[in-house]
Amino acid sequence: MHGEYKVPGGKLVVVDLEVVDNTIVDFRLAGDFFLEPDSALGDINAAVNGLSADSDAVSIAAAVRAALPAEATLLGFSPESVAVAIRRSLARASSWQDYQWQLIHSPRPVPPVMQMALDEVLAIEVGEGRRSPTLRIWEWNEPAVVIGSFQSLKNEVDPVNAEKHGFTVVRRISGGGAMFMEAGSVITYSIYAPTDLVQGMTFADSYAYLDEWVLTALKSLGIDAYYQPLNDITSPKGKIGGAAQKRLGSGAVLHHVTMSYDMDGEKMVQVLRIGREKLSDKGITSAAKRVDPLRSQTGLSRAEIIDRMKQTFTGLYGAVSGDVTDDEYAKAAALVESKFGTADWIGRVP
């Protein structure tokens, strides 16, 4: 069995092993990481050999850590990343390069409620094998608040100010917090992938793993971007964006991210019922300040940043250009009528 795990912000961890009578044997660790002393590689291999194939990641990492000499130095990886690679090999997980990725960035603006429906439809299509794994970058021209699946509508949104500023409220199928969205103010993308891509990973590991490519893109633009668990993309100058995720029974994972390009902080605190602690988390020192980490840190237009993201993803994973099909649009429109556009769904948590 063979497993690989690219540590977000770190190095590649590669494992090969056999399983005999539910026991790991002939385990070999490799990768482009740094490890001192050299003999510690043998210590890690010896620690894993003999473990049960049913061992969870916590147990595997503990065994590796206990076997390391006191003076051992690990750079670019950790006992936990070795454990993830092992669990991925045992689960026969796939990698990015195992798929023909499609990249969708249509200039056709789609209403926010339709974005919610498209996320569910495209994830199902990937899970059921009718669509190849896909990255989709959103475009829309209507202001909206997108609340998480489990958020309370009345606790998150001020209805009077939302109406005053022309904001509609929609609810997505993933958890997490509210997204304040105006055309041109944020960059939002969705990844629809088979769950095999994140097999053997905890939810926390999978968040960073699925967004490693966008960190690469941002760093190429001069932003010192990094992942802050559980689901934030940030930099020394403040939070850039946040991710949310949903695993579907069809065998797909939906992972979407919203990053701030240039948001109106004063308007946001009027529309959202947002406390001082939350303001601080978003890097807002006053209500009047614009939240603009991507614009201020790059000096580039939103379109230029998106172009770099598309170039990076395509360069890493060989994506080809695509679009939403007429059939997928029709399925999404039906979901808007039956689910996402209904008062029952939007107010499912009053």
Account of the 3D structure:
With 350 residues, this protein is α+β, with helices and mostly antiparallel strands. It has 2 domains: 2-91, Enolase-like, domain 1 (2-Layer Sandwich); 102-347, Bira Bifunctional Protein, Domain 2 (BirA Bifunctional Protein, domain 2). Helices cover 37% and strands 25% of the residues. The chain has 14 helices and 16 strands. It has helices at residues 40-48, 57-67, 79-90, 112-127, 153-156, 159-164, 203-210, 212-220, 265-271, 276-281, 293-298, 302-317, 326-340, 343-346; strands at residues 2-6, 12-20, 23-31, 34-36, 73-75, 102-104, 134-137, 144-147, 168-171, 179-181, 186-194, 226-228, 232-235, 238-248, 252-260, 320-322. Helix 8 packs across helix 12. The N and C termini lie far apart (49 Å). The model has no long low-confidence stretch (mean pLDDT 93). Keywords: Ligase. It comes from Cryobacterium mannosilyticum. InterPro entries: aa-tRNA-synth_II/BPL/LPL, BPL_LPL_catalytic, Octanoyltrans_LipM/LipL. This is Lipoate--protein ligase family protein. GO terms for molecular function: ligase activity.
